[in-house]
Amino acid sequence: MAILAHILQLVGWWIAPLIIFLLNRKSRFASFQALQALLLQMAYLVVGGALMVFAFSSFFLTMAHHSADKSGPPPTIVFVLFPLLWLGFMGAWVAMLVIAIMYGVKAGRGEWAEYPLLGRLALEILKIGPGGSVLTEAT
Fold this sequence. Notes:
By secondary structure, the chain is mostly helical. It has helices spanning 2-7, 9-12, 15-23, 28-65, 76-108, 118-126. The model has no long low-confidence stretch (mean pLDDT 82).
């Protein structure tokens, strides 16, 4: 199930890791791997949403600024900005693809590999230590 959480996020987006996370709460390993994949998908949605807001706002602001000159060519920014945004979306997707495959293989080996930044957050949310160790409460 841990492998599926990583690999299915490529086609099931955030829904597949969420289902695996909810169904496998008893397994610390599977829930940790599924939560990491879920957090990666949430970060991807935030970055994608920010890029979309930036794209639409820059497009409409540019068109509003150049609306007076109807006979002139389109603004140069359109030909520069949109290929850069496309590269941003594709770069984020390729990074997600590489991370999903790499950590899916590690999960298949039984490694407690942590995503950069998101792995520690997943450990804190699940209240487990590195390597799946049980945290004891300090009293």
